[in-house]
């Protein structure tokens, strides 16, 4: 069985597994606490030791469900790295509700969200806390104050961001002592804007690894009927044969992991078979021509 | 009555009042010199001590009209901070005129424009001189030479820019000893591109305050009949009630001033009642959810 | 006759002639080796001592043809600066070919491409080697390793890039000891995006000169029938009269060379008469208003 390696996320940063198990859909996996624990142990055994959460996933319920599983075997905590995120204040929409979902990166908001995540997960410390979405009202000094307090109290070891532009990243980094350890970004064959818009250039420059989310485009790769996705499916299948891959998923993970910013990839499935498939992708050797074939299939034009 | 505070514009920069009286429409206010002086004294009394001019406003006539008022009571000069701008060479269009309006940031052009502004205003020194528009022909070394000369001769205390992109700002800053003290940018509920495109991130990073121009979108907020502006009017009215504001103007100023780059806002009205209304906006407390409600009304979609 | 001057390309960089003879169309000039040598001597005599090549031009054949001419008079080598480029792996398309053209900036790829260019040109050293196109798979460390090796072996003196965005430039520069000596970019009256998108701001900031390619938009300036190009032709002709230029070409070169990033301009013609015309453009004095008239003709709107 393939073993997923651990990689350094940033200078002085933590080590994460090159594939990270995302738990945003945990609420829909229909697993009892024991089944959740089993799933967790299975992916740890493969070397997938890093897990990704956020306060907003099912309004905190995903963290609660995960915490219940952890409680069944507290020795697991030491074997994993837990990432969570803060900052989206969801507000249920209704015909009469005038208020809107928004972001909150106030110091008080960050501290409260983190306390809630720790409580729900039933742990004392997060390995990393990420800003979930760029908040146009982000006061970088306030965020830095909150991060310092969480670091000093031992509640969070490392800090990062998600979906940040380069200028947002520079701004926040300018107020922090330690390097941000990641920018978690959308990266899949349908949308890989971050490859060309400077986001991944910035990370490569600072030797900070991105975490790639929505690697399979939320499933659109398999089902969408646009010309773009049809071209992509044909090319990915063809590459699957050339590379001896078992599935299109594997080709996609290999494609993402080949990027020189050295991403780690988030998995969203609760199906252990598909997790194993993904892990096997790490052994595939894709060359540059094959990588660009996906680029061409996605864009519908040749490279300039 | 509310008193408008003074705020530091940048490290080692000047202090400006948090609301700045803009004089670009002075020519249309139909005031004699005494009325202009009265208006000026009234806003100084509120704490609005900073005034904004530019060489191009009515081809210099606005500066001349302001200078006439100042001459009636020269003691006023010490109570105010005067900002002016250079760099747009307007050319009247006509059927036979082939020449076009253009920018001039040559050293000779900067020195000449500044002399003319000083002469028209009847003062010895500007508190700040801004580049009015980015000039694609800007030779940053020449601009720096002009700035140094104006600084040494005591004709200008501080320097800034207007409508600059982040790369233009970086370029000019790289040639200067002192920090640029502002980037004056368009910022209103219809157009707030600077919030997301990096412009305000850069300023926040360097602790330089933007000056927000066109806060009321040239009046379009009150009159335009687009779907966007209709949504905005409804949301701003609703917020006005929640916040206990007297007018939509106040809600808009509160919305702009809430941004963490700490803008100062330009007023364009010659109606002292509306100036007072704006000053009262400084006491309004808008929360993040309310700020994003304007974002949502403007964009027509929820935040991601 | 006008003499083209040499200019410093970057701090510690090489000196290139302000006009550079491009050889990408050499294969279509229908010259025997002696005619090629004559052409080369003629432009050297004018002061155009820098020549521009790339591994991809006619799949290497342009370098071979140039090398044949050099071999007829090896003393020429010391009188010129040779630029070449690497990184595009062209793949002939056919009905059955599934592979696509792509980029290669692997260390092995860079070393092999450079060896091939040296062999075809019949020289021991390139004055400058450029990355031809940004490779989304560029591992900046590998590129730096290759550059160091080529520098130490004496095979290449200086390094630069072409068509790079600002973040790609920053990334690669961050791994190199010496400054990149240029970014070769498209710059003509139809497409001058680099003037506003930060590319030339970055170069001016670092005092690195761009090399302008496609100055005449591949001839589209003379032949295209779009409204934009019709406006441009009318304005360029009018400016030609005002400036006493012999041709529209000259006006365009003067327009490009006026940019404060101090570009050097690439010529693509094999017609020595047109090369002479271009050299004469260096004596034209275009003012800012005239420069912006081309801007306005291209954009179809006045400056803001």
TrEMBL record, chains A, B, C:
One of its GO terms (cellular component) is cytosol. Transmembrane segments: none annotated. SUPFAM superfamilies: NAD(P)-linked oxidoreductase. InterPro entries: AKR, AKR_Detox_Biosynth, NAD(P)_OxRdtase_dom_sf, NADP_OxRdtase_dom. The keyword 4Fe-4S does not apply. Keywords: NADP, Oxidoreductase. Residues 19-293 form the NADP-dependent oxidoreductase domain. One of its GO terms (molecular function) is oxidoreductase activity. It holds the Pfam family Aldo_ket_red. Belongs to the aldo/keto reductase family. Aldo/keto reductase 2 subfamily. This is Aldo/keto reductase.
């Amino acid at each position: 069985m393939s073993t997923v390696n651990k990689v350094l996320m940033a200078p002085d940063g933590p080590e994460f597994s090159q594939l990270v198990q995302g738990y945003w859909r945990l609420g829909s996996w229909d697993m009892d606490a024991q089944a959740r624990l089993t799933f967790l142990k299975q992916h740890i055994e493969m070397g997938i030791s890093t897990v990704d959460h956020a306060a907003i996933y099912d309004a905190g319920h995903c963290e609660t469900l995960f915490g219940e599983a952890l409680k069944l075997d507290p020795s697991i905590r030491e074997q994993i790295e837990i990432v969570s995120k803060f900052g989206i204040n969801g507000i249920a929409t209704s015909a009469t509700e005038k208020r809107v979902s928004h972001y909150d990166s106030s110091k008080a908001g960050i501290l409260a969200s983190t306390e809630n995540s720790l409580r729900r997960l039933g742990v004392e410390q997060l390995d990393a806390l990420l800003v979930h979405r760029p908040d146009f009202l982000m006061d970088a000094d306030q965020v830095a104050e909150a991060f310092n307090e969480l670091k000093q109290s031992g509640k969070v070891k490392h800090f990062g961001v998600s979906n940040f532009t380069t200028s947002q990243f520079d701004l926040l980094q300018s107020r922090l002592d330690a390097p941000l350890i990641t920018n978690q970004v959308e990266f899949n064959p349908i949308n890989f804007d971050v490859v060309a818009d400077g986001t991944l250039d910035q990370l490569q420059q600072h030797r900070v690894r991105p975490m790639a989310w929505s690697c399979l485009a939320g499933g659109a790769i398999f089902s969408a009927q646009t010309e773009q996705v049809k071209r992509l499916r044909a090319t990915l299948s063809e590459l699957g044969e050339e590379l001896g891959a078992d599935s299109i998923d594997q080709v996609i993970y290999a494609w993402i992991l080949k990027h020189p910013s050295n991403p780690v990839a988030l998995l969203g499935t609760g199906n252990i078979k598909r997790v194993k498939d993904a892990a096997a992708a790490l052994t595939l050797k894709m060359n540059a021509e094959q990588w660009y074939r996906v680029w061409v299939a996605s864009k519908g034009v040749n490279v300039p």
